[in-house]
Amino acid sequence: MPTYEGSDIQAAVNEGLQAMHLTREEVTVDVLEAGKKGFLGFGRRLAVVRLTPNEQPSQVKQSAPAPVQAPVEPTPTDNLTSTPQKRKSGAETEAELSAYLEAITAQIGTPVSIHVTHDHRSTTYHLKTDKEGLLIGKHGKTINALQYLAQTYFDHHMKGKQTIILEVGDYRQRRAAIVSHLADKAAREVVATGKPVFLEPMPGFERKIVHGHLATNHHVQTHSEGQGDRRSIVVELARTF
């Protein structure tokens, strides 16, 4: 039997019904692939179904059937976000995460080799590629998105807290220096004007750099405001009592 594809199961079923000139009641639907939206455009897959006419189908209609209600689409299984049945070992998690990162970076045209290092607070995946700029992305958006996925995977498969860092060349080191410079500049402006300064939105690990860097500056204090990817740091004069 032929198979039919669509952006989701319902679209694939409708495609098949129109091609076969049958109604939903006249066929049996087998879902071969539930489809996957992917993340940031990565890993997207079409839904695939097979339609089998029932043993005694009704008279074939010449006109295309009206849109039908397809079965409820099952949630695609995603190894990065699904809750596992049992915890994996550190070696298993590291190997699977490395394989995932190799696969997804190959899809976006930046194949990598991976070297992993550890310390007592973090695990760093060093991604070596000939296309560092493309892998990092504008303002680090691509590498930060991959790091978020990697952290989510680790948190679902391992006990305890461990920070996952994705490093490309010395990008994290260079970015930390830039963030620290921005923090110092904001602190000087606050002291000079007496007015608070709102820094650009940053991911959590970069906000942590700012908080830590300015913690020893007794003239200013910091706090975070906003939600999600719009969360940012406010630098203001330290309160005196």
Automatic annotation (TrEMBL):
Keywords attached to this entry: Cell shape, Cell wall biogenesis/degradation, Chaperone, Cytoplasm, RNA-binding
Query: Where is the region Disordered?
Result: 54-94
Name listed for the protein in its UniProt record: RNA-binding protein KhpB
Q: Which family does it belong to?
A: Belongs to the KhpB RNA-binding protein family.
Q: Please give a single GO biological process term from the UniProt record.
A: peptidoglycan biosynthetic process
Q: Which PROSITE patterns match?
A: R3H (PS51061)
Tell me the Pfam families matching this sequence: Jag_N, KH_KhpA-B, R3H
What is its subcellular localisation?
Cytoplasm
Q: What is the protein's known function?
A: A probable RNA chaperone. Forms a complex with KhpA which binds to cellular RNA and controls its expression. Plays a role in peptidoglycan (PG) homeostasis and cell length regulation.
- Keyword Cytoplasm assigned: yes
Assembly notes: Forms a complex with KhpA.
**Annotated source species:** Latilactobacillus curvatus (Lactobacillus curvatus)
Q: Which InterPro entries match?
A: Jag_KH, Jag_N_dom_sf, KH_dom-like_a/b, KhpB, KhpB_N, R3H_dom, R3H_dom_sf, R3H_KhpB
Which GO MF terms are attached to this record?
Answer: RNA binding
- GO cellular component terms, semicolon-separated: cytoplasm
Q: What is known of its domains?
A: Has an N-terminal Jag-N domain and 2 RNA-binding domains (KH and R3H).
